[in-house]
Amino acid sequence: MTTQDQQPLGSPFSAASTAEDVMAGVDLSGKTAVVTGGYSGLGLETTRALAAAGARVIVPARRPGIAAAALDDVKGCEVFPMDLTDLDSVREAAARITASVTRLDLLMAVAGVMATPERRVGPGWEGQLAANHFGHFTLACELYPLLAAAGGARIVVNSSSGHALTGFRRHDPHFRTGYDKWLAYGQSKTANVLFAVHLDTLGRDDGVRTFALHPGKIITGLQRDMTLQEQIDRGWVDERRNVVGPDFKTPSQGAATGLWAATSPLLEGRGGLYLEDCDIAHARTPDSTDEDGVRDHAVDPEAAERLWELSMAATGATPVGR
Q1: What domains are defined for the chain?
Q2: So which residues are the catalytic ones?
């Protein structure tokens, strides 16, 4: 896909739509979904909505005890241990999922971190890239046979408008020459979109379609590594942590675009697209200063293939496709 494919469809939903709006009348009985981060914030809203529609939902969680408590009242939900920054843990979770189901209809990559202090994981990887991209990349590759077996599966990857901060820094992806927490976040969000673009190319013949999205501005646990003063200075909250920023969404509204991506018949036969506000996002012009839309560096097919090759070499993930 390219920026030419980034044209809104005229969806009946909008930025104001909630998870309940998008899922009204949707029946997912007999379907199985995996939701990373599915026990807090947008992930919890996503899990609840999918389960309410009849899906069996598996939630891989770094803190399985906390996840189980948060999901105690959600029927048809299971929790498996998994740490996205530990690829052995990711592979173990994928093996457990593979042993428990014969097909997977939805993979929702909702978990993420933002603007963290400098952290090194694995072989010295930058922590945000590892958690937001390498972990989800490996999980999707290991679960791919289950997705292909579904004959119409969808993968939905939460990115962000923060992808506009930078393209993928092939010269220094792990910030060994100096760490910037916001550029590191932006790079990981660009990686999310590029991942979706190339995975869709590899998976479409198996009926596996992939989308990336910006859920909107929402105050959730994602801001846990930011101080209150930082959030005040950015105009997001006041001194009492009340949300005061314009255009902020509720968690239910924030989950709506991902649920729309997972279930909308309007997206049949499509993939490799960046979505926002329950529709396909428009392409940003190079000189655009608004926060909407997608930058061309995030949907460039050649950049997506290069990142795929880098990610395969780094993670040793199982190859995808025929």
Answers
A1: 3-217+252-315 (3.40.50.720)
A2: 185
